[in-house]
């Protein structure tokens, strides 16, 4: 009986405590709603830390989630967007973890969170979140939330200039039942704006009068927005200013947010600049800053401590830099823009977001490099060249650097549970992303898609929290920063020079680093120069092009060598090339270092004759490369595709030649399955793939064939490969779709992402006996020199000198397709053991002679 009373007392007491906690949370929420200021926020944060440790029941969590949502809403209102995002994310995680399904998380959490992701440039997260809550709204037949989702998704795509998708999304929204008039107007407004922008882009001479009539029956605000865009396009800045003022009168009122006021001030500044009214532009820029920074002093420039992730800051500082006549001050403004973009980047948890930001930031990098080039020309100081080089490197292969830095950190701290968990979650995130790439075709797959979207979002949230913890634990600021002194020291050790190109809208810049000096050149990207580059690339589209006009090829190969200003590297045999843009498709070994009249390829002064070339996507990767250690252990993968129209008839010959040179285990014919290869690859130092491959296009990623299926670029992002060297004896494995800033999205990039440090890859389609001959020579040289870097050049020289290969087959089309990415490991020293043996034998013989002579003397009678 006593025990029963005790249990009842405990139950009543705990229930009372829970009710008291729930009530306390609601009281705190109501109090904060009545005192929404910084002091009230500070008080609320203290209460949150007290409540969190006591949460127990679903009612507690419901009340606490509601409190967090209210806090996040206030943070968003006062432009503390990063904190707002973290608070919304925390509320959503609690909602998921404790299954608080009675709370309308879509309306109060996910919709505002998607908007904040958009505002803070987290475009991938924004798209994932909006698409997810649209799916939830469809599932629960909530038309209002569906429509909100379509509106926000259309606005997201509009900011990314994806106007065709905007129109498609808006049309879907307009078909939903229960559409309210204001929602219909909003969707039509967004749709019509994209339609007009498409027309403006297609017709530079679109007249203002074209925007009237029944077909263009739109509201005043939209009419003025379109007219403003048209006037800007036509360069009629006075008329654009007139329309902007009309928009301001319609949109700005006492309730307008500080952010929107700042945006209008910036637009006014932009028009003043275009009208050559720089003083007025600066006044408006200061007004814009004053809207975003309540304590801003107009006589001072904001410091990095004042700034937070906000797109308008980037617009302000970029424009201020354009106006500024002092180059050092202009560079400072650009640096402030870069600082804000880096604050945005700290929220990224996937490589797609980094790729997108690299594309946006590259134009700013070019402006900084241009300013420093002018200073370098006038003052000749190498410090300007080094600073320009840092801007060139800043956004080069940034997504690949981001992932590589995480692997590097784990290598340095292999037992750190945070880093181990991060790698697990990154692979999980990529797994969900890959599965979502497959379009659903039936209801079961639609349900799976919904689940995958949820898993992807949840993984991203956990990853973000994990990355914040890792950031606090380790200093990650310098992981992706190139140290020029370290670069110089490695070049000195390797007796090499590095040539890096930066390809921009207005020019091509070249940086040449050697152990002794740095050179900085500008190459004008004229129509003539662009033609030279394109024409040279086109020589390698098919085998006959070069041989049909050898004289034209030799002239173009030498002229491009000169145009790319490569004469300065002639003293250096070892050369690192960091290409950019279309230069990624050029086999530099096939350029000619001198003019020549010979038609005999073996006598031509190709760069391969005088330079041993290695390629990298960033100078940082070169400085981080480690010596290649040869191991006589290879896995050869040869699907062959016998009895099909895909048959690789020289593949078997290639296998025989490799087997003669190196210890190889083969997976051939039906054994060359994707899963079988991936399971076995870890047991071998060298992975050799002789198969078909494709560089991909806008719809399909780069891929490589196995007997049963393809391995796509995105599949490689999930893998963790330990091979010391991968040889991709397949077509186009070193090229792919160009991503501005990031570079070529090739299989080579995929294998680098998966952890492979050294690779031999191809730049174009080639399936010929020459490939098997080159590979045979490569592996022979690899065994002899124990250096993939040296073996790559030696195999090409041997091919050119081979007496049994005809001159036609010595065209660079046949031998320059394969390029090397990796370390400049030198050839092993010539064996000194035979000399030592001869010396020892000589000493022994000498000793025996001395003993014989001595004994003869002692035998005398």
From TrEMBL:
* Highest taxon listed in the record's lineage: Bacteria
Keywords, alphabetical: Membrane, Signal, Transmembrane, Transmembrane helix
Q: Name one Pfam family in it.
A: CHAT
Q: Which InterPro entries is this protein grouped with? A: CHAT_dom, TPR-like_helical_dom_sf
In what residue span(s) does the CHAT domain sit?
Answer: 569-823
Q: Where are the transmembrane segments?
A: 835-853
What is the protein name given in its UniProt record? Answer: CHAT domain-containing protein
Q: Which organism is it from?
A: Winogradskyella epiphytica
